[in-house]
Amino acid sequence: MYFCGKSDVGMRRQVNQDSVRAVSIWGGEAVLLIVCDGMGGHQAGEIASRTAVDVFCDKVAMSPCYEETPQKILDFIRYTLVCAASEANAAVYTLAGENAEFLGMGTTLVAVLVYKGYFYAINVGDSRFYIVTRYEARQVTRDHSFVQYLIDNGKLTPEEARSYPRKNVITRAIGVSEKLDVDFFSAPLEPWESGYLLLCSDGLSNYTDNKVLVDILYDAHTVDLLPENELMRKAEKLIAYANNKGGSDNVSAVLAKF
User: Fold this and answer.
1) Coil, strand, or helix at residue 163?
2) CATH superfamily for domain 2-138+170-257
3) What digits encode the pLDDT tens for the residues 176-190?
4) Domains of the chain by residue range
5) Distance, CA of 21 to CA of 6 (rounded, Å)
6) DSSP string, 192-221
7) What is the pLDDT of residue 223?
8) Residue 35 φ/ψ, nearest 5 degrees
9) What's the pLDDT tens digit per position in 2-60?
10) How far apart are CA 81 and CA 73, in angstroms?
11) Alpha carbon distance 139, 118 (integer Å)
12) pTM to 2 decimals?
């Protein structure tokens, strides 16, 4: 599996508070992808997102799966990802409590582990995970946001939500409370046959829709003999699209081709 991660400060921000990582772990048997979108004044958001990525990835990388049956693998990986998110939460929460300048900082977190033909995903906040094929872009995760709450309760349509003034208000985050509630998702990749895993911050998702994601990732002009170059070019095109539309926030995209 080929993968890459790219992050950009955008057109209006001075500091990039997003952190991303895409790495091979467990002796090359698994791939771990993650995007964290930090929040907080000064450099606090940047520190929150970087801390969460470091702690989460270290925990997962140091916990290789030796289970053999599908159910035991699922249980083990769910436990590992939830524990890693909890450790990341504790680390950010502790930093915020020990340093007055970091008070109130936090970060979103969306991560995907690919192992033996399955994806295992976890998310907190409104950073997203999509599966994109030639025919569709499907959002796997569900935003933890005030806008999503209004949509779920029939008070806003998805179209109205795109321009809602409190669009950036999230209802869950890493590091803002001692307790953490996460969502977990898992499925085999085989039914999709081939495509892309896309993790992104809202600096990208706020400017794109499903059709745009398919069009950019399947643009014939990004075909390259070297798959890793092709993926990086696609990530750069996604970020350029958001920046050309306004780039009001940091923009991050992590891609893996399956």
Assistant:
1) coil
2) PPM-type phosphatase domain (3.60.40.10)
3) 999 999 999 999 999
4) 2-138+170-257
5) 9
6) G-S-EEEEE-HHHHTT--HHHHHHHHT-GG
7) 65
8) -135, 130
9) 999 999 999 999 999 999 999 999 999 999 999 999 999 778 999 999 999 999 999 99
10) 12
11) 16
12) 0.95
